[in-house]
Amino acid sequence: MKIVKLNDVPTSEINMDGVKNLVKQIPIGSMDGSPHFSFRVFTIGKDGHTPYHSHPYEHLNYIISGKGAIKKSDNEEIAIETGYFSLILADEMHQYVNKSNEPLVVICAVPKEKE
Amino acid sequence: MKIVKLNDVPTSEINMDGVKNLVKQIPIGSMDGSPHFSFRVFTIGKDGHTPYHSHPYEHLNYIISGKGAIKKSDNEEIAIETGYFSLILADEMHQYVNKSNEPLVVICAVPKEKE
Q1: Closest residue to A34, CB basis, from B35, B60, B94
Q2: Do A35 and B27 make contact, defined as CB atoms within 8 angstroms?
Q3: What residues in B contact A32, CB-CB < 8 Å?
Q4: How far apart, in Å, are the Cα atoms of A53 and each of A61, A77, A96?
Q5: Three-state DSSP class for B1?
Q6: Which of A69, A79, A85, B48 is in Cβ range 3.0-4.6 Å of B44 for a Cys bridge?
Q7: B8-40 residue pLDDT tens
């Protein structure tokens, strides 16, 4: 059993193409012996976003706090905020975009091999 | 892709031995085509609790809101509140107990076969 507060989980800044103002934490992952899935948390700062991309595995998301959107295509985005869940299936294009002055904080659960 | 607000997800009351004031929702699950894992949400009302039990699969939890404890054994419980994560491994005894007058709302991610 592991019990941890988000504030006590180490943070790492993500620097890659298509990313802006993105910090990652792994409150539950393979290091903890989680057999199948990992819970990552992404904090997307003001004006920040994840890459607009797809990948061959799904993720399950929960919006801990903030306001933003999920970009699905060049002409479609869906508004999200605190209390929303999303399921992004394998090979679906997606991007999380912060749309407020406060951080957009998102749980992103993935197969542990992809954490 | 599925995007849903927790308030829009159907609720069902759980009545089983060892349970008190417990409501379940499945914002992301096998019905949505989630390939491996499901996100369930349990709302534990005032004086409520989940069963004190174990099972042969893990779950990954996030405390959306409230204050309570995880009972690990007859003489050990760990305080939890909004913003905590927990990993309950297969066969570990555990019980979520509400310790405040407000609901204790918990994401509980499990293999989809166990949703």
Answers
A1: B60
A2: no
A3: 87
A4: 16, 14, 10
A5: coil
A6: B48
A7: 999 999 999 999 999 999 999 999 999 999 999
